[in-house]
Each structure stands twice: as C-alpha cells, then as structure tokens.
Design goal:
Residues 148-232 form the Quercetin 2,3-dioxygenase C-terminal cupin domain. Its cofactor is Fe cation. It comes from Polaribacter haliotis. Residues 11-120 form the Pirin N-terminal domain. This protein is mainly beta. It has one domain (2-232): Jelly Rolls. 0% of the residues lie in helices and 55% in strands. The chain has strands spanning 2-6, 12-15, 19-23, 41-49, 54-60, 64-71, 74-78, 83-86, 90-95, 100-105, 113-120, 130-135, 146-151, 160-162, 167-173, 178-182, 186-193, 195-198, 201-204, 208-212, 216-221, 225-232. The strands form four sheets. The protein has a seven-stranded mixed sheet with strand order 1-20-17-22-15-13-14, with no helix packed on it. A seven-stranded antiparallel sheet has the order 2-3-4-11-6-9-12, with no helix packed on it. A four-stranded antiparallel sheet has the order 5-10-7-8, with no helix packed on it. It is globular and about 45 Å long.
Length: 235
C-alpha cells in the first residue's frame, strides 16, 4: 500500500476578498512541484465566494470539471446555452473537450457559497463538450458509498459521466461506523466534515489521503463524517 497525506493547513491559499480558495494541488499562484496531481486528479479547489460575486466568463479545454456545492447556491452559465443554479446535494459535470466558456456567480445578497471544484485529466482529447447536472438523494449515501460520477463507457446507473476511467463517490458516516472501500485505481479521500481513520491514519476536516497499490482500505468514522472519494487512474 502506498499513502500520501495532505493536511488541510498545507494547502495553498489565495484570498482575493471576493474569493477565498484553498488549493490541494498546484493552481494559479500556488505552485508546488510536489503537489501537482494525484494520478489523473489534477485540481481540487475548496472555494468560498462572497455574496453578489463570482467568476466571469472564462475558457476551458480538454478537462473533466466537476463542481460540488457544500453550502449556498452557485449560478452557472456557459457557451452550450446552459443557464442553471447548482445547489447543495447536486453535482455538475462538464467535459470541456474541444473547448467551452462558462461563468460562475453567487447571486445571494447575504450568503457565501462554498463549493469544491475538481479537474480530472481526460483519457481522450478534443471530444464534443458535454454538460450534465443532477440532484443526489442524501438518504442513498448514509453509511454507504453513493457513486456520483463514473466513466462514460462504463457508466454506473444514476451517476454522471466523465471522459476518464474515474469514479467519484460520497458517503455520510455515522460515528463509530466501520466500512471498507474497494479501490478501482488509486483513491484520493477528501474529508469534507468530521474525523475518520483511513488505513490507520487519522484524517480530520478538509484533510486528505491518497492511497494506491492496494485492493481495499478500512475506513472508521471517529465522529459523524462526510467523505468524498476520487478514484482515478494513476497514469
């Protein structure tokens, strides 16, 4: 088993006033040669956007982009004529492929938006851009792994497709619950809330652990926890 631990406080941080962003991997002004990626997972940003602020229209190309709101509501508009809001419980997937532009904005006058954005390197470039969004049942991840995203060519029923052999799952764990996760590739475990023990390592709020070269890992919730698992090819 191979492990890499990324504590919350070791992440890169950018504070622009309207935006506070924590970067697990090198991004924008945060550059760290030892924190470039975990396999095909290239970006994991933990963003907080202030009321009535947001990201203006900007381009993407040849990247799988997944957005997961933690609190608040994020408005989205793109060059594929999608104009939607993304709420807690929903997941948004964009396959940028040959290229697209989009903007993200917090329309609230009072509440900040906190969302995770993941970039996964695709297995094929220059595909036709695609956008999908879905609300997932909270009950379906209570003490069990709920698959949010899966490969387009092996799509698990009810999940959203990406152009890579990657899987994103979430589980809400009751305190003291123990379970096992079976790896398909290498798995990056990011703890949204709570405290867990994964492969005998203590992981606290917004900490992460990447695990590869093993078939399964034991997870124990030390307190009520919300865990995100990004299972991606390592090369």
């Amino acid at each position: 088993m191979k492990k890499i631990i990324h504590k919350s406080e070791t992440r890169g941080e950018a504070n622009h006033g309207w935006l506070k962003s924590f970067h697990t991997f090198s991004f924008a002004s945060y550059q760290n040669s030892e924190r470039m990626n975990f396999g095909m997972l290239r970006v994991l940003n933990d963003d907080v956007v202030q009321p009535k602020m947001g990201f203006g229209t900007h381009p993407h190309k040849n990247m799988e982009i997944i957005s997961i709101p933690i609190s608040g509501v994020l408005s989205h508009k793109d060059s594929m004529d999608n104009k939607r809001s993304i709420e807690v419980g929903e997941v948004q997937v964009m396959s940028a492929g040959t290229g697209l532009t989009h903007s993200e904005f917090n329309d609230s006058k009072t509440d900040a938006v906190n969302f995770l954005q993941l970039w996964i390197i695709p297995e094929a470039e220059n595909v036709t851009p695609n956008y999908e969004q879905k609300l997932f049942s909270e009950a379906e991840r209570k003490n069990k792994f709920q698959v949010l995203v899966s490969p387009k060519d092996k799509q698990i029923k009810g999940s959203l497709p990406i152009n890579q052999q990657g899987y994103i799952s979430m589980i809400d764990l009751e305190a003291d619950l123990k379970t096992e996760y079976e790896l398909k590739n290498g798995a990056y475990f990011f703890l949204i809330e709570g405290e867990v023990s994964i492969a005998d390592e203590i992981i606290k709020r917004r900490d992460a652990i990447g695990i590869s070269e093993t078939e399964k890992v034991v997870i124990k919730a030390n307190k009520q926890s919300k865990l995100l698992i990004i299972d991606v090819p390592m090369n």
